[in-house]
Amino acid sequence: MALKDILVPAMGESVTEASVSKWFKQVGDAVKQDEAVAELETDKVTLEVNAPVAGQLKEIKAAQGSTVQVGALLGRIDEGAAGATKVAPAAPAAATATPAQPATTPAPASQASTSAGPAARKIAEESGIQLADVAGTGKDGRPTKGDVMAYAAAPAPAKASASGPREERVKMSKLRLTIAKRLKDSQNTAAILTTFNEIDMSNVMALRNEYKDAFEKKYGIRLGFMSFFVKAAVAALKEVPEVNAHIDGDEVVYKRFYDIGVAVGGAQGLVVPVVRNADQLSIAEIEAEIARLAQKAKDGTLAMSDMTGGTFTVSNGGVYGSLMSTPIINPPQSAILGMHKTEERPIAVKGQVVIRPMMYVAVSYDHRIIDGRESVTFLVKIKEAVEDPRRLLLGV
Predict the structure, then answer these.
(1) Residues 25-74: pLDDT tens digits?
(2) Where among 31, 47, 79 does a domain terminate?
(3) Strand order across the 67-69 sheet
């Protein structure tokens, strides 16, 4: 018998431990080479561990929920062995026929319960009490007025909820714990302020409606609004470089590249995969990359390389119906753009009240590095670019 170890793989820089979130195989199961046998969860991603050889899973050394280090032993495979045959449980022996017992006839309600006095009956009717449920202390076991009053005052027995326990405790995943810690650290460390504006979405919506079918036919992906905001953010970052910088000790690090994080909801919670070199991508390429990353987030297959190194983040709470919010900075970045729900509202245009599809937008920023003038200028640049998408094509 040749046993082959299943080890915790290297999981990227700065990640040294994970928790075993799931075993796909049980002891005795047959496994194929490179077949997923377990799933690990780190503070950033989940990843599958594949069988190094084909054979039979012989041992599980790290139970579900346990914490393991890189290189630790998860289990062992008996190389080349076939999987154990699942044996169906034996059918129970036929039961010996037993003569049917006569059904027990329920006893009729006692005469004592139905012959309570008028006062007892009145209180029972007003309280919705069945006299048959009251233990009587009167003559022949009849319920008295006092018996009914005592029954009405007694606490009702606790009833089990039809949907199960009233509370449930579930251990937080490593990813959720890390999200909670990072967001709290962001609030504790950065001097966060938020500035707001609103965007008339008329022109970009008209552009999208006119070309969405041709766009999807040519590129095989849907044309959304996120790509326009990513392009607008890149243009604004070039105009206001402080927003694309971060503080490192007593230095300000200015980024000369534009890796834009796009916040999406994944299988394990909110994650922020990064669109690399967004300044070098077309609208179609940005849409394709966002779709690819969103699918990986949904499948739980994002790698750490997909989520590290972003210089700025765009988050769209509007897909969940949010009208306005103050997004929290994703450290070590210095700012984040929050998009929201597009809603028709009356606005004044050239002295006339018109109905336009409007979106509130917000930029939360670290006031230690970004002043109010820069934050407002940055948001106005985004507003101008989205309201007139031709600016994105002309670079003005």
Answers:
(1) 999 899 999 898 998 887 667 778 899 999 989 889 888 888 888 888 99
(2) 79
(3) 46-50, 36-41, 17-23, 67-69
Q: Express each pLDDT in 211-265 by its tens digit.
A: 999 999 999 999 999 999 999 999 999 999 999 999 998 999 999 999 999 988 7
Mean pLDDT of 301-328: 89
Neighbours of 215 (CB within 10 A): 17
Task: Label residue 124 by pLDDT band (50, 70, 90).
Answer: confident
The total domain count for the chain is 2
Q: How far apart are CA 275 and CA 306, in angstroms?
A: 8
Specify if 284 maps to a domain: yes
Place of tokens 């504006």: 197
Report the Cα–Cα distance between both ends of the chain, in Å, rounded: 71
Where residue 342 sits, what CATH number does that domain have? Answer: 3.30.559.10
Same domain, 387 and 265: yes
Range of the domain at 56: 3-79
Q: For residue 31, what are its two tokens?
A: 């496994």
Mean pLDDT of 2-6: 87
Active site residues: 367, 371
pLDDT (tens digit, 9 = 90+) per residue, 152-190?
A: 776 555 444 455 678 888 877 776 777 778 778 888 888
Long-range contacts of 346-350 (CB under 8 A, 24+ apart): 347/200
Amino acid at 373: R
Please choose, from the candidates 85, 18, 12, the residue with its C-alpha nearest in 3D space to the C-alpha of residue 268: 18
For residue 46, the domain's CATH number is 2.40.50.100
